[in-house]
Amino acid sequence: MAYRDKKGQIEVTFNWVYILIAGAVILLFFFGLVFKQKAVSEQNLGNDLVRIMDSIFTGAGVSEKTKNFIDLSGLADYTLYFDCVDGVGEYGLKGTSARVENEVDPLFAPREIKGTQLIVWSLPYKLPYKVIDFLFVTSSNTKYFLFGGNTGVFDVESFMNSTEGFKRDYVTSEQYKSIDPGKNFQVRLVDLSGDIIGKGKEVPEKLQAMDNNKVTAVVFRGSNQVDYYQKEGERWTKLNYNTPVQIVSLGGERDAAKYAAIFAADDKVYKCNMQKAFKRLKYINEVYSGKAEEMKIFYSSKTFSKECFGYIQEGKPNLIDALSSQANLLQGCFKDNTLSNCGKLIESAMEIKTVNDNLGEKGDCITLY
Amino acid sequence: MTINKKGQMQMTETIAVLFIFFVLLLFGIIFYYKYQQVAVKEKQEELLAARAMDTTLKMLFLPELMCTKREAEPEDNCIDVLKMRQAKATFRKYMSDYYFGIFSYARIRVVDLVDKQELVLYDKEKTKVLDNGTMVGDWEKLEKTYFVVTLRDEIKGQGEARYDLGYIEVGVYS
Amino acid sequence: MIGLVIIVILITLGMLFMAIFALKEDPQKKIFTRKGLAYSTVSAGMKMNIECNDEVGKVYPQLGKDILDQCAQDYQDPLCIKYNCEGKHCCQVFNETMSKMLNSTLGGWGKSFEFSARLVQGKGSIPVGLSEIKSKDGCQGKERDSSGLFPIQAGSAGLVESVLYICD
Predict the structure, then answer these.
(1) Dihedral (C-alpha) C58, C62, C67, C69: value to the nearest 10 degrees?
(2) Which residues, at least 6 apart from C105, have a Cβ–Cβ distance to it below 8 Å?
(3) Is A76 left (phi over 0), alpha (psi -120 to 50) or beta?
(4) Where do runs of H (alpha helix) occur along A148-305?
(5) A339 or B129, which is more confident
(6) Does residue A347 come out as left (phi exceeding 0), alpha (psi in the -120 to 50 range) or beta?
(7) For residue A229, what are the contacts with CB-CB under 8 A and spacing of at least 6?
(8) In the beta sheet, which residues pair with residue B13?
(9) Chain B within 8 Å of C45 (Cβ-Cβ)?
(10) Residues 6+ apart with CB under 8 A from C5
(11) Residue of B121, B120, B119, B124 lying closest to B96 (CA atoms)
(12) Residues B53-77: pLDDT tens digits?
């Protein structure tokens, strides 16, 4: 009897131990599965997100001048990052492997964006014909402060009208010192006069508490040059050292290259993306040169349109020479990534524009673009 | 029933239940595996469709092909024939350098319905090299998208823009 | 008894999965291409030049801006004042050309469609149908996407609204 009791007791105890171990193993297995699935799902989310962003950027890029406001409230805890190195742009989710590389489309954005609404806008870059669409990406919690007066360098009114929906303010030079970032994630100051922000000068008091990389500035020096600054403690430090960044554009309303300077994180990002534009310009120049040749052949056989032929080949300036000059200047432009050799493209672009205008207005001929 | 027989019956019942349980678990795993297979295939189709959309969009708004009107807005759904003829050569010349980055594995064809002519502007097929050295296509599907366009030719119109009807076919290889 | 319960659970799960697949919305690409195709077809169609052998010789009017516009102004007249391509009325020219265009493109790609152009003469007036072109089965009872309205101001006659629906 005692023996039987003991056997029963051991058996019962053993059963319970067995149940505990088996139960623990099964639970561990399912918990492991759940955590693995969670990690996989997060990775998938990241990949899906960047893929969708890629599609959005493609769509936004082609619907030029249209602003897209994208709700990111579900991703408020995630940080998007944007970078461009050696002509290759990259963006993705910080801290994950989900990212997209793009060496074709110029994208001007702050280095990091973290917020509930993404704002995407594109403008065509023309030199003088359309080269490519510039994509500007920012967020509803990135604030832009413009100041410095309308010096003819930058059309502030046009900028303010075009950027309806963006977080931007135009303040007077006197109000500069009292700029308040509010609850924004980051601020970008735009000095249009070129004499308020400088190396070693003091940062507005209310901005001093923010992280250094969240307070940046772009200063316009004349109509075609900018400098980039970032806060370092209580003072400004220059990012592009001694060489001002060249803005290669024909000016006018909604100047894509100038707007790009405002949205780009810094000089490196700006130059890297401009290199993409110049690369595209080289190929489009070839296409237009081919068109100019066809136009030349067509008008060479027509006795009634000697004027057109003159604008295309014989006159000064003429289309074939202007396009050839642009192609040669582009070679010089690619020599380094400082953009310092690219300034002459403005002249050749003006020449092409003049000839094209002559073709259209004076000669009633086929125009190049 | 004796205690032994009862015990044996109970044991057999327990084993049978466990067996059924594991069989059901196995069915569940097989079902999940099959579902995942279908889900992956669907995802691939979705990605292919997205790529087709992106490629078509980029193609329709390419500065190398679009009809322009000087400083005015460019014309929608219009291809400049004079540019197109040169663009084909440019795409081919810089395909691996640049245009592959835009279009990837795709075939872009422009058809003129009036002149009954077609032009393959871009064709980058997915290929593989067989053991005997021959290169063959390595794609399963060519997802095509069509868009009707006008082909503007100013030379045909003797200095005036002449719009012919045509279409573009953008096919992406999977 | 337990077996029956298990079978019922399995069948319910199976039906749930089927329901999920059935209720899945149309893939984005399908909608994008249908809408985009409808828009591009009408846009291209209206802009295209057609060869017209008139009394004066060969002319190349645009299908929308010239032919449809004239059709809207002269639909009640037996003769089109401005364009008489091969002796045909401009409305007839428009219908034939548009029909040929739609059938050779959309029809050739296996798409069903419905096209209509109507003249809206004024506020409160009944629109006048100028053109009605359908593919073999049309879009009756099918999911369709529209090109959007393409308005053309036809002089003093009114506004011509054209729309194309594509359905699979």
Answers:
(1) -140
(2) B113, B146, B148, B167, C41
(3) alpha
(4) 156-162, 256-263, 267-300
(5) B129
(6) alpha
(7) A197, A198, A199, A216, A217, A218, A219, A236, A237, A238, A239
(8) none
(9) yes
(10) none
(11) B124
(12) 888 888 989 999 999 988 888 898 9
**Residue B168: beta bridge partners?**
B110, B147
pLDDT per residue as tens digits for the range A265-321: 999 999 999 999 999 999 999 999 999 999 999 998 877 678 899 999 988 889 999
- Residue B167's pLDDT band (boundaries 50, 70, 90)? very high
Cα–Cα separations (whole angstroms), residue A121 to A58, A163, A251, C71: 11, 9, 19, 41
**pLDDT tier for residue A150 given thresholds of 50, 70 and 90:** low
**Helix, strand, coil percentages for chain B (3-state, nearest 5):** 45, 30, 25
Q: How far apart are CA B20 and CA A106, in angstroms?
A: 61
Among candidates B24, B113, B149 on the partner chain, residue whose Cβ is nearest the Cβ of C40: B149
CA distances from C31 to A350, A363, C35 (A): 43, 45, 6
CA dist A108 and A105 (Å) reads 10
Q: Per-domain residue ranges for chain A?
A: 46-265, 275-362
> Considering CB atoms only, which of B60, B76, B165 is closest to C48?
B165
Nearest CA in chain C to B48: C29
- The answer as to whether B40 is a domain residue is no
Q: For tokens 């400004």, what's the residue?
A: A236
pLDDT digits (tens, 9 = 90+) for B38-58: 888 888 888 888 888 888 888
Task: Render pLDDT for B90-124 as a digit per residue (tens, 0 to 9).
Answer: 999 999 989 999 999 999 999 999 999 999 999 99
- Give the whole-angstrom CA distance, residue B94 versus residue B102: 11
Neighbours of chain B (3+ CB pairs under 8 A): A, C
Structural domain of residue B159, as residue ranges?
48-173
In terms of residues, how long is chain B?
174
Contact A284, A134 (CB under 8 A): no
Rounded to two decimals, the ipTM of the complex is 0.85
Q: How far, in whole angstroms, is CA A46 from its chain's centroid?
A: 21
Residues from B contacting A (CB-CB < 8 Å) are: 47, 50, 53-54, 57-58, 60-61, 63-64, 66, 68, 70, 74, 80, 82-83, 85-87, 89-90, 94, 98, 101-102, 154-155, 159
User: What does the alpha-carbon distance between residue A312 and residue A300 come to, in Å, rounded to a whole number?
Assistant: 10
Residue contact A284–B159, C-beta within 8 A: no
Higher pLDDT, A362 or A218: A218
How much is the average pLDDT of A173-189? 93
Restricting to A residues 284-303, those with a Cβ less than 8 Å away from any Cβ of B are 284, 286-291, 294-295, 298
Residue-level pLDDT at B121: 96
Burial of A209 (0-12, 13-18, 19+ CB in 10 A): exposed
Residue A1 confidence (pLDDT) above 60:
no
Residue A113's closest CA among A135, A147, A83, A85? A83
pLDDT at A307: 86
Residue written as token pair 């319905």:
B113
Unique residue bearing structure tokens 């050749």: A348
At A87-113, the pLDDT tens digits run 999 999 998 888 899 999 999 999 999
Count structural domains, chain B.
Answer: 1
Domains of chain C by residue range: 38-167
Which residue carries 């003091």 as its tokens?
Answer: A202
